[in-house]
Design goal:
The chain has helices at 11-17, 31-42, 69-83, 106-134, 154-173, 211-222; strands spanning 22-26, 46-51, 60-63, 88-91, 137-141, 179-185, 232-235. The chain is α/β, with parallel strands linked by helices.
């Protein structure tokens, strides 16, 4: 067989072939989460969203504050019931509070840890039985700031470094049972930065990634054949300043 005759690999075809999955997305009402919901539904997946805000599209929605772990567990279990099972969970919910440690109110600092790290663990814990039954997949969303620390971001870095450690340990724990992927996105063109003080917002010349590009990477992860996993994935704009 000549090189020209070899079958070509088409990622889009792979994704369509895997459509019909039941997926839970945290933070699915905006930003990266909303882009994942849209991409998944476009290929025929059914998606449930956990968020404090109503999503524009979803097959199921459970309103929940992910800073409350027990409530997050109950909401995740309800979403699984509404979908009739689960094939994948993507924990894309995330918040931030910028500023020197002594200037950020304790409750706000702790809320970042609660949503980004404890909420992630609570949702994953709640859906594990369903994912084990389906030999499903977990995609946790960390950040380039889960690998690289910067000033005035102690809460965010602590939470995302925690997600990195949690996910790596979980991958070892669930090997052969449930696929586990650590997603590390760079900065994206979302409302994530809108409520920050001006000094912490990306500059006008910042080259942020389109969240749809990251969502496409998530669907690529979910479309891997049985026995194959994307363990860790960095997705960033080509001029991303927080990576490497």
């Amino acid at each position: 067989m000549s090189p020209d005759d070899r079958p070509t690999h088409d990622a889009a075809t792979d994704v369509r072939g895997a459509a019909g999955r039941r997926i839970l997305v945290t933070g699915g009402s905006s930003g990266l989460g909303a882009a994942i919901v849209q991409a998944a539904r476009r290929v025929g997946d059914r998606v449930a969203v956990l968020d404090v805000h109503q999503p524009s599209i979803a097959d199921a929605y459970v309103e929940v504050d992910l800073a409350q772990p027990r409530a997050a567990e109950r909401a995740a279990a309800q979403a699984v019931d509404e979908l009739g099972g689960l094939d994948a969970v993507v924990t894309s919910a995330g918040i931030d509070r910028c500023g020197p440690l002594g200037d950020v109110e304790s409750a706000e600092w702790e809320r970042v840890i609660a949503v980004n790290l404890l909420g992630t663990a609570a949702v994953v814990r709640a859906v594990l039985p369903a994912l084990r039954a389906a030999h499903g997949r977990i995609v946790t969303v960390a950040s380039t700031l889960g690998l690289r620390a910067v000033s005035d971001a102690t809460a965010y870095c602590a939470s995302k470094f925690g997600v990195v450690g949690f996910t790596r340990a979980l991958a070892a724990e669930l090997a052969g049972q449930v696929g586990v992927t650590l997603l590390i996105p760079g900065g994206m063109q979302t409302a994530f930065f809108d409520d920050r003080p001006e000094q912490y917002k990306p500059g006008a010349d910042a080259k942020l990634n389109d969240p749809r590009n990251v969502a496409a990477a998530v669907l690529h992860v979910l479309a891997q054949p049985p026995g194959c996993e994307v363990r860790e994935l960095v997705v960033a704009g080509s001029l991303e300043t927080s990576w490497p």
